[in-house]
Amino acid sequence: MGKINRFFKGIKGKEPQATSVWVDCPDATIDVCFVHGLSGDRDTTWTAHGQSVPWPKMLLPDKLPKARLLTYGYDAYVVRKSVAGTNRLIDHATNLLSDLTTDRESCNATSRRLIFVAHSLGGLVCKEAILLSRNNPESHLCDVFHCVVGVIFMGTPHKGSWMADWAKIPAHTLGLIKSTNKTLLDILKTDNQILELTQSRFLSMVRELREDGRRFEVTCFFEELQLLAFGRVVVPRESATFESYMPISIHANHSNMVKFDSVEDNGFKRLLGVLVRWETSTSSGQQTVRGAVSNGGVSADSAGIVRPVKRHYAVPVETVASYTQRDELWQELGDKLQIRHEKACVPFAVAIYGLGGTGKSQLALKYAESHGSRYNPILWIDATDENTTRSSFERCARELGLPQDQTEKQASALADTWAVQTVLRWLKGRTSVEDEWLVIIDNADDFHWGLNRVIPTGERGSIIITSQDDRSSMLVPKGCERLRVDVMSPSEATTVLLQHLPWDIDLVPNDVRKNCEEVVKKLEFLALAIDLAGAYIGNDPDPERAITQYLSDFIVHRNELLQMNSFRGLLPTEKTVWTVWDKTLQKITKDDPSLQPDLLLAFLAQFKGNIIQDEIFRLAAIGSNLLNDELIEKLPAELRGLLAAQDEKWDSFQYRQNLEPLVRYSLLQRVDSDWPGVTMHGLVQWRTLQSGQSPQSPWPYMAFITAACRQIRKEKQQPEFRRHQIVHFPDICGVFGKGTKLGELECSVMNTLGLVYRDEGRWTEAEGLFAQVMEISKTKLGVDHPDTLIIIKICKTKLGVDHPDTLRSMVNLALTYWDQGRWDDVEELELGVNHPDMLSSMNNLALTYWNQGRWNNAEELQGQVMEICKMKLGVDHPDTLSSMNNLASTYRGQGRWDDAEELQGQVMEICKKKLRVMEMSKTKLGVDHPDMLINIGRWDDAKELQLRVDHPNTLSSMGWWNDVEELVDHPDTLICMNNLAFTWKSQGRLSEAIELMDRCVQGHTESSRSILDEWRTEECGQ
């Protein structure tokens, strides 16, 4: 409970204090008064941990050299161990008004502009004090109202706080008997009527002042972090902020949100940005005596006649009725427009960029509508092209009342026209004593015609740019923030759609809401697409039925729904999902004639996975050398240009050059991960595939994927990429279509894909492809019986066992079954007996029997392999000896120890005989004599080998006898000795087995060492 006690630090009963000056300034132009909050103190509330001085005294003087800094203290301790104060909110507000007025009178500053910075409860006190000052019968107390510029609320509970329940916290939590100020606690409760009335009166006052032309600023900060003592934020965002005002967050809890320890603190930077802007806008020229502003928002002309200030708002469009606030973007836009860039042509600028149709213009428009009192004027420039820009400047000139010079000749360049020149001069001429202005430059997607020459400049300016081009921030050099707008969140997108329906959003039937969620999911949360779909559905007399029908129609008639233009002229936008990217697609094709990004986009639209990795292009580029000429010809020349490779290295320059404009205009988005690449919005993919740019033939994509597959199987060092690559594999049946006659080229592609599937352990997919290849082989043979064994028999009789296509596919299918442990299916794929691959398959099948414990079947098949090897290769060929060794292992598995010993003895005798012949040849003929080569070569074809005695193949055939020291550690020798040792042990000949196993260990067979130790222990126990 220590944290709770520390939070209620006011229970110590410190005496409240009134106004105190932190920093005096003889020539001050503005007063900044800090008012603390609940259980706070006029100094410690504003003092960071580890500091001894309030941060305003330490950090602000250099930033606000013309400001006098004050702090106000009052009894804000609602809980005490002694007697809590009884002052009501109105009492604290009255004291603040009186004390502050007295202080300002004492230094002759009654007409000086005033800013309040208020924390927590202090914000409520300030609001009430300003309201008291507004129509106070004592004229001197009206000065605060006349001079206040604005209020910065920091964690103020405008709508109450759950912390009002402090009065219910048990006494033992706080330590001693407690006393509470129940009046204040009651007001702080959520939905308190007095609190609501104060808020209503304050907002009405602000609205009336702004309608009269008087500047009155409000900025609300809210806390991001919970107070650890309670596990929740003290004042939630919805209570700390005003609707239609930009909320700003501080990454701290309720107490620490007003404690900054350096100028680098982000919270300090945000607060300072507001203070500097307000202080600048109220500098010398706007210091007005009480009489000049007593009418609530007027200015006096040179003749002393008071006139209302005219507000200029030249924005020809409005936000759509379905506009839905996107809180994170709204917050970020406000934060970025607080960042001042001293070296830029305007101090504040933000480029809002992203894919067309995501709501960039609506966001900028909503900002303009919400900040009509902050900026004067607000101007809107449609920068789609030169004509729309010229028309926009002419409209702005008329709005500002700027006369046209009738003698001026018509300029050929847009930047030289009278409207552009006049408006730009007027904006640039605004000085620090005049209002800030805001210019929104919308649809700034094409810069080539000279848009940068008509960008406004001026020390009082703010600019918002909306563009699909992520380079749009360069239109304001040396200082322009960037804000990316992407698709909406599922909840935001659903809300947009629901806005079109006749129900209250909170009362929508569950089935309707679920259907809406399904619609926005199909439209992939693109704001424009959702808004158009909403207009279509909402226009139906029975929208509940219409939304169900829309989902049904979307499956079959997606193209017609997305291209629909029936609401043209009835909606604020003229764009559809079909047309929204037209300008961008046209632009990227003409920007650089040497590039063809549109063709790259069309090719990428064929990919199956969400992310198209750069790695797959690298693999395809290098792997294209592994394709035959027929497959290479399937790749268009333009695509081959992106796959240039030399010395096993991809030259990615052309690929990157063509990719850049697609990413720049957000048609693609870069994805940074272990395998970086790009991703494409589903509706962009749809639009591209429908545009006619995509290849009509599936072969370019098939050849590309095949090249990448062959290369990844060749490299083998990055097998983890296979799972990403497989995502892009096409559906062969879907690509070629049912009934399509498939030939050798299709078989080659399917076989390659099947091998990669098998490598990745995707047995089902591999089996399916290999089976299709076998079916194609059957078709080529003219046989349509589905049984796999019949296919094998036909292959033997009609194609022969050496036919490469059928043989390769059958072996691959058998290996796939093997990896899956499907021994019975492997058994059914018995292959031929003469081809080397068939012998290997028979060995695999025998091992399958062995794994199943089917010793008799294994023995029979291994016996066949051994006999075939003896006949085809000779009795002393290594493969023959290996097959004999395998059969001996099967005998051991059957418990036929004598047969196993006999067969292994034969193997050793053959090796011994071969070794003796070799030794005699070496002695009498020399190691290079042809007869010697015959003795040590491949016995059935010795004349083709011509090997030296020290060749690995020679050594492999030399045997396993321990009397030849250099051969004793040959792997095959050791395996044979190991097997025989196990046989002898099984026969009860333990001593002989140990002796033989010891020789295996001496031959560096470390895996045999533990067996040897175990046997020796067993021998000792006997």
Describe the structure.
The chain has 43 helices and 22 strands. The protein is α/β, with parallel strands linked by helices. The strands form six sheets. A seven-stranded mixed sheet has the order 1-3-2-5-6-8-9, with helices on both faces. Helix 14 (386-400) packs across helix 15 (418-428) and helix 35 packs antiparallel against helix 36. Residues 1-15, 80-85, 166-181, 284-308, 781-805, 831-835 and 924-969 have low confidence and may be disordered.
Features:
alpha/beta; six-stranded parallel sheet; 10% strand
Secondary structural class: alpha/beta
Number of helices: 43
How far apart the termini lie comes to 72 Å
What's the pLDDT, averaged over the residues? 77
Overall 3D shape: elongated
Query: Which regions contain 5 or more consecutive residues with pLDDT less than 50?
Result: 1-15, 80-85, 166-181, 284-308, 781-805, 831-835, 924-969
> Largest sheet, described in full?
7 strands, mixed
User: What is the CA-based Rg, rounded?
Assistant: 43 Å
Number-wise, the strands total 22
Beta-strand percent range: 5-15%
Residue share in helix: 40-55%
- This entry's quaternary arrangement is single chain
User: Largest beta sheet: what is the strand line-up?
Assistant: 1-3-2-5-6-8-9
